[in-house]
Amino acid sequence: MSKRRNLIFGLVRGLAAICIALLVATVLIFICAEGGSFSQKLSQTAGALHQLLIGPAFRANGSLSIKNLCDILASMIPTIFTGLSVCVMFSANQFNLGGEGGAMLGAFVAALCAIYLNLGAGIHVVVCILAGALACGAMMLIPALLKVKLDVSEMVCSLMLNYVVMYFIKYMVNSHLADKSKGQIQTFPFQPTAQVPQLVENGSKLSWGFVVAILFVVLTALFMYRTRWGYAIRMIGINKDFAMYSGMKVGAVIVLAQVLGGVLAGMGGGLEMLGRYSTFSWSALPGYGWTGITIAILAGNNPIFVPFAAFFMAYLDKGCNLMSTYSGVPYQLIDIIQAVIFLFFAAEQFLSRYRQKLVVRSTQEELAQKAAAEEGGVKHV
To answer: For residue range 286-338, what is the model confidence (pLDDT) as tens digits?
Structure first.
């Protein structure tokens, strides 16, 4: 099947999964809606869906809400990076789930550098973010080396590592790094030279980290599709045995994919921390890694599509917030939507008949073109 038809199938499959997820959400909203009569439940469901689908982009008077759109773009920054992280690792068929803890570790290390390093403006923020990225890359060495050397499942190892990182950070902040003069547990403030400048001054927290995220989308796509290392990562993901017999250093490439994924996740956490906050106060995993998995699945492990998938998830997140505030629908509905999308993408038989029809149609067209070319050649002779 041609690349164009593969792309069409992927888009149709993605849209179908999203539509089914929204349909499930609609049914759940209707069931949870208050009111004794059918019309009251229907009215409340319509209001909730309006907040979910229209509210993030438009005000009540119908005008475009620039502030809400900037909020959406700001919330995309860490999830673009975790989405790219998952794309790289999943392309090598490495189901590493450490992006969640990696983003938290990157944010924590960046925060430490922002507090305790004394550097000039410009260089300080760069050093902080790079330190967070390298710390997360080093963290990902653990599941990568265990996978290569001992054939330990990277999924289980990275999943447990998330909680090791979380509780270690909680211990450090609670016991050694907390500012005791504050009413809640948080570190001392970041130095002004370490904070990421704001892209727009409208209170949305949209920083220059968004521009950096888009830049890394391009760089990741170029790496994956225009370098021999990117080719090796994708080849190992397609057929590890073939890559091995072709002379590729499979172990080194597996380690590279997971470490690069960690660097990207850590960078996203660092940019989020220094662009949105002035102190470190996270006490739980931020959720960016899990969202990054959904984004990578929606994007088909293609870095170019990651910003669009991240925008969709950020838009839904904003819509669920508005829906929870104004319609009384639980915010956790977004977790159900993500789960349904993941379920249908993971189901190999979902739309398999439609894919088979595309394959048959593509083959018939190729055979017809070949027959026409042969017939034309005979007539010419």
So the answer is: 999 999 998 998 888 999 999 999 999 999 889 888 888 877 777 777 788 77
Residue 331 lies in a domain: no
CA distance 279 to 284: 15
CA distance 31 to 131: 48
| Predicted confidence (pLDDT) per residue in 50-84, tens digit | 888 898 888 877 788 888 899 999 999 999 999 99
Domains contained in the chain, number? 1
- Kindly report the pTM of this predicted structure: 0.87
| Domain membership flag for residue 380 | no
Phi, psi of 58 (to 5 degrees): -130, 145
277: left (phi over 0), alpha (psi -120 to 50) or beta: beta
In a domain, 14, yes or no: no
Q: What range does the domain containing 184 cover?
A: 66-318
What secondary structure, in 3-state letters, does the chain show?
CCHHHHHHHHHHHHHHHHHHHHHHHHHHHHHHCCCCCHHHHHHHHHHHHHHHHCCCCECCCCCECHHHHHHHHHHHHHHHHHHHHHHHHHHCCCCCCCHHHHHHHHHHHHHHHHHHCCCCCCHHHHHHHHHHHHHHHHHHHHHHHHHHHHCCCHHHHHHHHHHHHHHHHHHHHHHHHECCCCCCCCECCCCHHHCCCECCCCCCCCECHHHHHHHHHHHHHHHHHHCHHHHHHHHHHHCHHHHHHCCCCHHHHHHHHHHHHHHHHHHHHHHHHHHHCCCCCCCCCCCHHHHHHHHHHHCCCCHHHHHHHHHHHHHHHHHHHHHHHHHCCCCCHHHHHHHHHHHHHHCCCCCHHHHHHHHHHHHHHHHHHHHHHHHHHHHHC
Amino acid at 36: G
CATH number of the domain enclosing 130: 1.10.3470.10
